[in-house]
Amino acid sequence: MKIAILGCGWLGLELGKRLREQNHEVRGSVTRHERMQEVRAAGLVPYSIKLYEKGIQGDIRSFLSGVNTLIIDIPPGLRKNPEVNFVKKIKKLIPYIEKSYLQKVIFTSSTSVYEDTLDFPTYDENAETDNSNDISVQLRNTELLFLNNEHFSASILRFGGLIGPERHPVKYLSGKTGIKDPEAPVNLVHQEDCIKAVFKLMDKEKDNSVWNVVYPEHPTKEEYYSAIAKKRNLESPEFDHSQPSKGKKISSEKLIKELKFEFSTPV
Fold it and tell me: What Å distances lie between residue 147 and 104, 134, 150, CA to CA?
């Protein structure tokens, strides 16, 4: 199978390596030319492609030509740059996907589309998304660009907080003080299970739906990060209890039941 991964970052590059191990032909894009050798060394065909609100830089036609499945794993960058219009960027991509005649799109989204509240609701894929937050609104509108398109089948994977090799939030929280929402449940997922979920959805040919991908255990932020810091011999973070915590729990029951998915790597 010919597969294109738009965005070979921390998750996308490792996913590409796993797909190559199964003898798929994989094309991988990066935004910086200096990373193309890294993609090539992983066995992928490298492309330099960057999305802008006014157009696309790079040979997007060649990147998509003859591809069966497109996996889109590009960070919106909305937290660092709130002025970015991620929806406009993706709108520039859609016509190229339509003209390429590929059959399947997998778009990696985020559980940040769901609202944090004082009562810690449990959200499944049918829950309303957060309309009060620009990041959530942009992510949801981007998802709909794929779900509402009749030219291809689209699966939306809403990942929780990503952890894995060389990546864990405790590194940034260690030793910090005044951390908010100590009682909020954590919603995390390991890189291994993210990759496993992508493989499962690749096998589901006709799908136009959303899938939550979060490890089904939700200790509080304070319990979890204090324990992880101790385990890694790091300085424990200190939490702010002066205000009520806001949070949520994300359910992955749909993924578990409908696709017989088993999470393999605890968080």
Answer: 11, 20, 8
pLDDT digits (tens, 9 = 90+) for 1-50: 999 999 999 999 999 999 999 999 999 999 999 999 999 999 999 999 99
Identify whether the C-beta of residue 109 lies closer than 8 Å to the C-beta of residue 74: no
**Cβ distance 154 to 147 under 8 Å?**
yes
Residue 5 · residue 49 · CB < 8 Å: no
Total Cβ atoms within 10 A of residue 244 = 8
Place of tokens 């702010």: 240
The alpha carbon of residue 201 and the mean position of all alpha carbons in its chain are separated, in whole angstroms, by 14
The CATH number covering residue 202 comes to 3.40.50.720
The residue to which tokens 């003080």 are assigned: 177
pTM of the model: 0.95
- Number of domains the chain contains: 1
Residue 117 lies in a domain: yes
Answer yes or no: are the C-beta atoms of 74 and 90 closer than 8 Å. Answer: no
Tell me, yes or no, whether 222 lies in a domain. no
Amino acid identity of residue 186, one-letter, is V
Expressed as residue numbers, the domain containing 193 is 2-164+189-216
Dig out the tokens for 28 from the structure: 């991988």
